[in-house]
Q: What sequence folds into this?
């Protein structure tokens, strides 16, 4: 059966091509073509026809086809719905900041974690994405928008640490010198808190930014909105976060979706502050995006302001995330739902 060539490291490719009787420099050439985003072996113009035929017989190149593409009228945010060879679809968002382009990509088709506020979580799980399919999202965006991506966030559909091996391999490929060469300091990984995998990641000592989706100050609220918390309680999660910080020296960003009447009181802020005290961290508040059927509403502006004031008084820095592309459903899971006809009126309002 043909193999997924774009998920191979340059070293693996070297060994595989040597077995097919090809010299070492050929692997470097092929690797560079793959990471420039070619979709067929025929586009590799400095590779002989004979070698290309050999490659076609043994390998396939995964790519992401654009099914839908929305561009925000407010800013330059572009939202994509991509499909892969088997017809499965994922979302990705390309954002334009003053320092360059950031892409938010998906790591799984769907998600098993079932967070109650999340459109992806409500849709269930289909499969993991291969490293090549994560790369393919970036490559399709660069080609479509005619730009170069400088930053990546693994914050699209799926739980990156539930697809650990493929995500770590993706990180290695995307940061490789002959690949897209995007440094770890330009990459963020967001997790709902798979504690054992946070320890594994800490051992790798990568310089990437870890974002932890906390969304609650205590187990009672968190277990209600995030089922993963029933397995790994907040104290365990924060212990793993402290370990991650000590191993990597990197500041952790805690994501906190502000939900009206659920987790947004001053008492909630005070409890959060006491748990995070002394940690090298930052809190990112996100007014929750209303997903049809959940009944959750965004916190009011003055509630958010008051919440921040409590955190800051306790010495915890916090900001409200700027929402980009608010006219195009830029938060993940929503475009895919609408493509499937499941979008509600409330979704459309977002
Ligand atoms: N599975 C990972 C990464 C993908 S979700 C994680 O949970 O961290 C990316 C971010 O969007 C997470 O912080 C997630 O909690 C948040 N999110 C999901 N649904 C949301 C909603 N309706 N409103 C605001 N943030 C949401
Ligand atoms: Fe999965 Fe993240 Fe959504 Fe939770 S918030 S269901 S972990 S994608």
A:
């Amino acid at each position: 059966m043909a193999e997924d060539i774009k998920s191979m490291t340059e070293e693996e490719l070297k060994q595989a091509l040597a077995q097919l009787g090809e010299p070492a420099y050929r692997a470097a050439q092929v690797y560079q073509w793959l990471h420039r985003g070619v979709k067929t072996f025929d586009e590799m113009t400095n590779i002989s026809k004979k070698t290309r035929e050999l490659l076609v017989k043994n390998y396939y190149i995964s790519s992401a086809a654009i099914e839908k593409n929305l561009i925000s009228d407010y800013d330059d945010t572009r939202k994509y719905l991509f499909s892969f060879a088997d017809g499965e679809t994922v979302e990705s968002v390309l954002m334009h900041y003053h320092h360059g382009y950031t892409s938010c990509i998906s790591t799984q088709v769907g998600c098993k974690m079932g967070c109650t506020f999340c459109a992806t979580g409500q849709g269930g799980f289909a499969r993991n994405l291969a490293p090549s399919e994560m790369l393919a999202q970036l490559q399709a965006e660069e080609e479509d928008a005619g730009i170069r991506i400088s930053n990546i966030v693994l914050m699209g559909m799926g739980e990156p640490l539930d697809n650990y091996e493929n995500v770590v391999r993706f990180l290695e490929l995307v940061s490789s010198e002959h690949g897209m060469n995007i440094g770890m300091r330009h990459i963020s990984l967001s997790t709902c808190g798979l504690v054992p995998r946070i320890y594994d990641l800490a051992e790798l000592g990568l310089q990437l930014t870890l974002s932890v989706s906390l969304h609650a100050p205590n187990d009672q609220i968190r277990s209600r909105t995030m089922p993963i918390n029933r397995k790994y309680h907040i104290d365990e999660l924060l212990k793993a976060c402290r370990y991650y910080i000590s191993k990597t020296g990197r500041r952790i960003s805690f994501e906190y979706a502000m939900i009206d009447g659920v987790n947004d009181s001053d008492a909630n802020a005070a409890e959060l502050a006491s748990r995070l005290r002394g940690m090298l961290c930052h809190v990112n508040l996100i007014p929750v995006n209303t997903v049809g059927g959940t009944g959750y509403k965004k916190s009011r502006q003055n509630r958010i302001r008051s919440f921040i004031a409590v955190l800051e008084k306790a010495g915890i820095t916090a900001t409200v995330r700027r929402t980009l592309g608010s006219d195009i459903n830029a938060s993940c899971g929503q475009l895919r739902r609408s493509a499937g006809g499941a979008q509600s009126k409330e979704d459309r309002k977002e």
The longest helix spans residues 131-145. The pocket of S-adenosyl-L-homocysteine (ligand 1) is lined by residues 117-118, 155, 159, 190-192, 213, 215, 255, 257, 286, 288-289, 291, 331 (CB under 6 Å). The CA atoms of residues 234 and 292 lie 28 Å apart. Confidence is low (pLDDT under 50) at residues 340-350.
